């Protein structure tokens, strides 16, 4: 359980985090979204205890950093931005160091290391200096380091940045498969990542919390949510579609020839559209229901404050 | 204690994972030999002792110790590993102490490796080995004080070169404050209390007696106190600057 109240952080006159309030319960996988410089990393740094807040209060598992900083740090696994690690060490030396600092000894330490090495698939590079590893492997070393003590709280700052699509998939699977009673916070720029792994989304811009709900609710904010898009194999008159009951408006993309129909709020229009297309023998060759376009919602939410 | 020893091991092995420790020890041995034989005239003096060798130690440390200390915090901050380190379940003072001890042991190792000189004077004559041992201890203590200045300056900046230059300057001030150049400048106008105070800050003044084999409690206390104060200052700095 993480409880953040009126959290603020300012650096020499500029406010990085502005009055954030939220609670995160076990089982929640939270995606921190926001433009660059929005205050995501600063917030994470404060939750991990690296930075002290300028004002406000952070409680982790009912403990506060003033009185129980070491106890809290034991509970948290943290992957800092850019996955820093000691370049002169090999992953084996590095993970051994982290495991020992986390209080593991002997056979248990070896078992922990073996387990995370398998989880993130580091076997082939265990004896190469970290500074010589590729970006993807470095990131995985960072992940292994954060996972080694099986923490209750996992905080990952851009965990998939710089990974190829396969590695991204692998990391997302890893996060999904973590025990269901953990708190996971990930920050990312990648919008589809949020729908892929998170069950809660927070959008932060200019240090303020602008949105805090499920990914589905974020989709619903899009004007494309529930809209039906069709494409005709040759030019056809689609104007009648706009007249259908339940259809609010119609948009036609002249370049691609795609027609998008927006429903009135709360209406489902797919069955109406297909029935009409059948009746009028419209040459439809593709038709799908839009899930909502996250990039559009993201822009709408974050640009409101920047302007 | 456990944490310090784990951190110490990491720091110590990182000196040897890169050429830093080897280069340092090599240069230290070469320079100390050059100084004691060619400039100090170890043979020509005709005395079986290591005074010429120890006399040059403050000047040798002045450049070599900042070189070994400069990367300790500056690199952690530059590469971002400080974020990792400070979010591990350890205290900042443990990290500081471990860094100091690791570099201090490397310095001690360099001193131990000057044993051929000790063998030489023992072969040539009949020196007082108690004095020599005391001087070694004194030299090592002094190097610890130099080191703490270097660590503090390294905590001040992300840039290793800046850290190096700053610590050479501060170390220089501490070394020369007891030398005649500085004291002569004060002599004409300053009251003797002020002069004594300035002189008492000097590494040279406190090391002089130690190089002759006299380990007095106030010299010992002085070097330990200087070390602790600078390490503490470094700790305050790193807490404030870690996020920059």
Automatic annotation (TrEMBL), chain A:
InterPro entries: AAA+_ATPase, ABC_transporter-like_ATP-bd, ABC_transporter_ATP-binding, P-loop_NTPase. GO terms for molecular function: ATP binding. Gene3D superfamilies: P-loop containing nucleotide triphosphate hydrolases. It comes from the Bacteria. Keywords: ATP-binding, Nodulation, Nucleotide-binding, Transport. Residues 2-231 form the ABC transporter domain. The keyword Acetylation does not apply. Belongs to the ABC transporter superfamily. This is ABC transporter ATP-binding protein. It comes from Paraglaciecola algarum.
TrEMBL record, chain B:
This is ABC transporter permease subunit. Residues 56-235 form the ABC-2 type transporter transmembrane domain. It holds the Pfam family ABC2_membrane_3. The chain crosses the membrane at residues 20-43, 55-74, 101-119, 131-149, 161-183, 220-238. It is found in: Cell membrane. Its main location: membrane. The keyword Iron does not apply. Keywords: Cell membrane, Membrane, Transmembrane, Transmembrane helix. It comes from Paraglaciecola algarum. It is a multi-pass membrane protein. InterPro entries: ABC-2_transporter_component, ABC2_TM.
